[in-house]
Amino acid sequence: MTYFPEEVVEHIFDFLSSHRDRNIVSTVCKAWYRVERLSRRSVFVGNCYAVRPGRVMARFPGMKCLSVKGKPHFADFNLVPHDWGGFALPWIEAAARGCPSLEELRLKRMVVSDESLELLARSFPNFKALVLVSCEGFTTDGLAAIATHCRGLRELDLQENEVEDHGRQWLSCFPDSCTSLESLNFACLKGEVNAGALERLVARCVNLRSLKLNRAISVESLARILARTPHLVELGTGSFTIEHGAEAYQRLIHAFQKCKSLKSLSGFWDVAPRCMQSIYSICPNLTVLNLSYAPAIQGADLVKLIRHCFKLQKLWVLDCIRDKGLAVVASTCKELQELRVFPSDIYGTGTAAVTEEGLVAISSGCSKLNSLLYFCHQMTNAALITVAKNCPHFTRFRLCILDPGKPDPDTNQPLDEGFGAIVRSCKDLRRLSLSGLLTDKVFLYIGEYAARLEMLSIAFAGDSDKGMVYVLNGCKNLRKLEIRDSPFGDAALLENVGKYETMRSLWMSSCDVTLGGCKALAAKMPRLNVEVINDTDESDEMEENPSDMHKVEKMYVYRTLAGARNDAPEFVEIL
Amino acid sequence: MTLTANTDRLLFSATPHSSVEFPARLREMEDVKGSDGLGDTELRLGLPGTSTATRSAKRALPEGDEESHDELRRTSAAKAQVVGWPPIRSYRKNSFPARKAEAEAEAEAEAAAGLYVKVSMDGAPYLRKIDLSVYKGYKELRESLNHMFQCFSLGELSRREGGSGSEYAITYEDKDGDLMLVGDVPWEMFISSCKRLRIMKGYEARGLESRKH
């Protein structure tokens, strides 16, 4: 194909939508590498420390969209110390120098300072979209800079970030000339915003299709906003506390009735159950419903609501929906593809909210289900085997039994067979999270059957090194492996060191890996960064020169072209 | 079977027959793993002297109606001490006022988790770890240590006052690295300065005593 003109090759590459495909074609020959790199518009960096920012900009000068991920996934659960790293500034600086035509930036689990946001706001004249997911380190001042300087901004999407509130004026910084917003999500902000400025902003942005408000927005304000945005497709409500008979409530119902395009709803922070009636008119059109922040809506009211939602494809709820409620979902929501059931009572006395019965009901009713996150108090092998049979299309299967290491309550057996059935049946499984009592056997099954598995999360599982080795030797598409509190040690770590260069990263915490094992790994594989992260509060355990036999509390290993990073804090040792 | 330092932090149900004052926080290894006949030589984290019960429907809380409010508080604080479990983002955990209180209790418990100290006993093959913050005073501490180590046929660990027959004495290493006799300083001062505990033979400790006076 090298005898085709470059324009033709480039045109053909345009049809390759996935990063993976483009990465592969770039390795075919020098000519293709060149064509590909000059025509690449969207770049995804799964680990910010795998490559230097400057190198990315140099290779892809025509880049328009950049996506970067920082901290390892277990940082979500406070397992990564606060100052570990993942700074956005070097990336923004490098992009400002090398790719000034950047239009979109997506960052996940990174530390983003106000300084970086200010630099971002001033450096890219064509900037259109900023998406920050699970980030931290910035305040509303940084947002003000974005609002002020990014002319033509189309998307500002803040998902579950920790943002310090420095006042409500940031929203007013969108100039009157700003009419380009299509998507605005500030649901994670804790502070108030200027309601008047918001209402005027949404009124003049006629292309606005997605709006997610924060908790501080009152229902009165919501009603006024909705009156100006009848074409909204996605809405995140504010607090939704309202008196049932009040005038504002009537106005709200009226406004909802006008929003014929609404397909996605979330928010409902403080809603009282009766008030959910106001959305009954929209329910038949909903494809996405997120009620996972509304603990006040219990079983019966939830059920009444769900009975209207027969087009639902994605549902996030709390476990107060109960098994009975899930049965209603199963009989109503035949189009359901993704279900997430979150726990409402984490530290409580285990009032069984959802069990294996709810999951089995869902699986028999919703045959299109392909993505699951399920927190429950117990699970049985029989149930998992049934689910595997009913739903062979799972691509993501995450089960969290709240009591670590809990066996099948009916048989007292480990859940090896249940998960084994899942991996055998679901040939397209890409992501799996295990829980409950598990022996090495489950890993034997995973290694043997989970050929497409890319991400595996293990906690309190396994008996011996063999378990981890089965996975490393078996899952040829494995990219991310994260393990906590499991008896895997140096032998497992060092069994297949070449494997780690085919993966993005490996995380192990509270396992049996020793410092010596980590050193051996680092010595054998120079293109991996082996980070040993010390717990800062274990001061009585920390010695000046810990011996090689010393167990490592947290270890993070990742392949990299950039060598050891120079921004690591004191408690991180890079071997 | 290797022991990780952090299985200490896992909090599981008490065995049905536990009668100790503090919530059982050590997980028992399953019987299943001992099937190769080496079960007897396996290190287990069960309370000494207890047999490994089968894993029959372990509940998350210790059973017993005599559970005092205190016990419940300790248990739920203790339950919260498994760091990062269940795997829920802090953003979600902090989203509800009620849950925020729980999250704060968890943070408190985690802060309190710093009061774990190792306890060694001369002649015992392995050490234990206890959380000093769950005890109200010396009496409780002694009773629980007594119970913990009785299988090593200690005899009573008693205070020096009544301790004419005492074979063992409880000592501790403080912040400065000095070996001290337990009981000399006020309880609050003790728990803030104690780094590890050591149960030693009485005659060794008598030297400590006389040094002090």
UniProtKB/TrEMBL annotation, chain A:
GO CC annotation terms, alphabetical: nucleus; SCF ubiquitin ligase complex
Molecular function as annotated in GO: auxin binding
Protein's name in the database: F-box domain-containing protein
Origin superkingdom: Eukaryota
Occurrences of domain F-box (ranges): 4-45
InterPro entries hit by this protein: COI1_F-box (IPR041567), F-box-like_dom_sf (IPR036047), F-box_dom (IPR001810), Leu-rich_rpt_Cys-con_subtyp (IPR006553), LRR_dom_sf (IPR032675), Transp_inhibit (IPR041101)
A biological process term (GO) from this entry: auxin-activated signaling pathway
Keywords tagged on the record: Auxin signaling pathway, Nucleus, Ubl conjugation pathway
Subcellular localization, as worded in the UniProt entry: Nucleus
SUPFAM superfamilies reported for this sequence: F-box domain, RNI-like
Subunit: Part of a SCF (SKP1-cullin-F-box) protein ligase complex. May interact with auxin and auxin-responsive proteins.
UniProt pathway: Protein modification; protein ubiquitination
Gene3D superfamilies for the chain: 1.20.1280.50, Ribonuclease Inhibitor
Ranges in coiled-coil conformation: none
From TrEMBL, chain B:
Subcellular location: Nucleus
Annotated ranges, domain PB1: 114-202
Cellular component aspect of the GO annotation: nucleus
Cross-referenced Pfam families: AUX_IAA
Protein name per its UniProtKB record: Auxin-responsive protein
Top-level division of the source organism's lineage: Eukaryota
Transmembrane parts of this sequence: none
SUPFAM superfamilies: CAD & PB1 domains
Organism of provenance: Musa balbisiana (Banana)
